Amino acid sequence: MSRKTIWGLGAGIIVLLLCPLFLPRFYVYLVSIILLYGLLATSLNLVLGYGGIYQFHHAVFYGVGAYGTTLMLTKTGLPAIFAFIAGPLVSAAFGLVLGIICIRLSKLYFGMLQISLGSLVWAIVYRWYSFTGGDDGIHGIPMPEMLSSPKSAYYFTLIITLVSLFIMWKIIRSPFGSALQGIRDNPVRSEMIGINVRMHQLLSLVLAGFFAGVAGSLFVVVDNTVFPDMLFWTLSLEIVIMCLLGGGFTFLGPRLGAAVIIALRTFVSTYTDYWALVLGIIMMLVIFFLPNGILGYVEEKFKRGFVEPEIEER
Amino acid sequence: MDAVYSIIPAGVLSQIFVGLSRTTILFIVASGLTLILGVLRIPNVAHGSLYMIGAFTAFTVTKLAGGGSAGFWTALVIAPLVVALISLIAERGMFQFLYEREHLMLLLLTFAFSLVFGDLVKLVWGGEYKSVPVPHIFQGFVPLFGGLPFPRYNLFLLIAGPVVAILLYLLTNKTKMGKIARAAAVDREMVGAVGINVSRVFATVFVIGCYLAGLGGVLVAPTVSVTLGMDHNLIIEAFLIVIIGGLGNIWGALLGALIFGLTQSLGILIWPKFGIIFPYLAVVVVLLFRPTGLLKSTW
Questions:
Q1: ipTM of the complex
Q2: What is the pTM (predicted TM-score) of this model?
Q3: How many CB pairs under 8 A join A and B?
Q4: Which of A173, A304, B122, B297 could form a disulfide with B246 if both were Cys (CB 3.0 to 4.6 A apart)?
């Protein structure tokens, strides 16, 4: 990292820390949502951008994490901390199971099968009234005293997001991360030099599932609700678009993409019911005119190391 | 006929026929999807939306034509053509510029279309349920195996499925167009090199595939309530069918639709609340043994 980047990140973190002091309540909520969606998009990018795996149904892990946390909070008497650990772990376990089933298939096959199996998870959550609350979801989830105000929820989200991002950044820079990118660029050669391709891919799916689960648990903290739409496949593709819009192969791109999409969704929804139409048109424009995303475009335009150490390696 | 009932209970038998009728719809839609996947390699998420547009268009056409039997037959001709026209515009306007790009981009573009189509349907037809009347000659029931009442319209579906399958077979195997399309699926550049306009072939295949989605939408319209969101379930099912059948294989789509339709209808008998999981289980089992589908994929 260049000195400039460190200064930039430091400034960003300070602004985020100060946010609740001068922003109205609604915007504190909005920034929390943006933060956790950024985490979600980054966790997808771990497998999609760095692993080259077509993880098309990432929302499943997000939703499962949220439901895992919620059910632990509402159905058991265990301290809340267990619920927040359990959610992401359940997501990781789902990542493992779906991964084992799908990993033998290549690229597009993988993605299509994952969309389909993920939809099964959605269908079960949607129908299992007695356990998951069915299509109503669960509202008014009790939070521990510490996290019940929007401000404390915000700081909790901010800290967990930053820690998770740091861990993911470390993972990508680790030998494991390099191997993963090697597999993305040339699976056959990676196999030949002795990398266990399947194991690496599987592990990356589990990790991505885990961090998506973290994002899901954070949503429960911020919003105190869960609902089946959290694991609907259209949300998954929305997350893919967040990655693409920000810049698919950059570390911070997906965060930026998430911020743009969530902010737009919030403001467009106040004017019209036709958000999907707007999103569809944005997607078409991005696909045609910004194929490398916003950060990719900036990189291209200014040709200077922005926040993009990864590009040099490829 | 008592012999039949002594082997298979009446309830199971009627569910089998319900499943077979569903299979017809699934097959018609999935065959279009698999055709596009096989030749153009586009996982068309918007396929479900085109099916939905087909059903809504059928509603409007039937209504304009007076709501009687004639209305349905007119819709059967016109609605798929409307869908085909929409897809032609989408293909010439956007998709044709992206064939060289990654699958991911193409998938996302079709997803963008499905979002746009979904909202346009909401804009044009509103959010209420619509129903299309069953045409006059197919109203009522026919007795099957001596007593089991079976809706006439479903019998019509059972005939329509094989007819479409045979026509598709003839189209892809016996016509010059079909042969070129199959060649283009295997080696696009070579086909281009011998002087064939590949772009036009792709456009034709895309439009035919989407026409089938529209046709499925019209055929299903009298049996269900036509509503927003009918696209989502169907596209997932069609994806699964195409995967277990083998990408790009039309007979695979038929086989997949059969497996899916029957496990779905029989699963409901076994476990009414979660019957939906049986087709998915079948898919997992198939893929554990044959990861690339039951029949040969064109990929």
A1: 0.82
A2: 0.86
A3: 108
A4: B297
CA distance B43 to chain A (A): 8
Main-chain dihedrals φ then ψ at residue B125, nearest 5 degrees:
-105, -10
Task: Please state, in angstroms and rounded to a whole number, the distance separating the CA atoms of residues A256 and A165.
Answer: 13
Q: Which residue has the tokens 């391709």?
A: A197
Closest residue, chain B, to A114 (C-alpha): B240
Do A122 and A243 touch, CB atoms closer than 8 A?
A: no
- In 10 A of CB B146, how many CB atoms? 9
For residue B103, the chain A residues in CB contact (below 8 A) are 54, 107-108
Which residues of chain B does A116 touch, with a Cβ-Cβ cutoff of 8 Å?
236, 239-240, 243, 280, 283
Contact yes or no for A237 and B111 at CB 8 A: yes
Q: B287 and A113: CB-CB below 8 Å?
A: yes
Which residues span the domain enclosing A99? 24-232
**CA neighbours closer than 13 Å in the CB half-sphere of residue A167:** 13
Q: For residue A129, what is the nearest residue in chain B, using CA coordinates? A: B273
Which structure tokens are listed for A82?
Answer: 């267990």
Q: pLDDT per position in chain A (314 positions), as tens?
A: 677 778 888 888 888 887 777 888 888 888 889 999 999 999 999 898 888 888 888 999 999 999 998 888 888 877 878 888 888 999 999 999 988 888 877 777 788 888 888 888 888 888 887 787 777 778 877 777 777 787 888 888 899 999 999 999 999 889 999 898 888 888 888 888 888 888 899 999 999 999 999 999 999 888 888 888 888 888 888 898 888 888 767 888 888 889 988 988 888 888 888 888 988 998 888 888 888 888 877 777 775 544 444 444 43
Any domain includes A260: no
Residue A36 distance to chain B (closest CA, Å): 23
Query: CB–CB of A20/A154 below 8 Å?
Result: yes
DSSP states along A2-69: -HHHHHHHHHHHHHHHHHHHHS-HHHHHHHHHHHHHHHHHHHHHHHHTSS------THHHHHHHHHHH
**What is the domain count for chain A?**
1
**What one-letter code names the amino acid at B76?**
L
**Other C-beta atoms lying within 10 Å of the C-beta of residue A7:** 10
* Residue A222, domain member (yes or no): yes
Asked if residue A252 is part of any domain, the answer here is no
Say which DSSP state B45 is in: T
How far is B226 from chain A, CA to nearest CA, in Å? 20
* Best to test chain B binding among A47, A116, A237, A240 (most B CBs inside 10 Å): A116
Residue A262 lies in a domain: no
Helix, strand and coil percent figures for chain A, each rounded to 5: 80, 0, 20
Who contacts B215 (Cβ-Cβ below 8 Å, separation ≥6)? B28, B54, B76, B80, B164
The residue written with tokens 């799908």 in the block is A102
Report the number of secondary-structure helices (H) and strands (E) in chain B: 12, 2
Q: Which residue has the tokens 């771990």?
A: A46
Our measurement of the distance from residue B83's CA atom to the centroid of its chain's CA atoms, rounded to an integer in Å, reads: 13
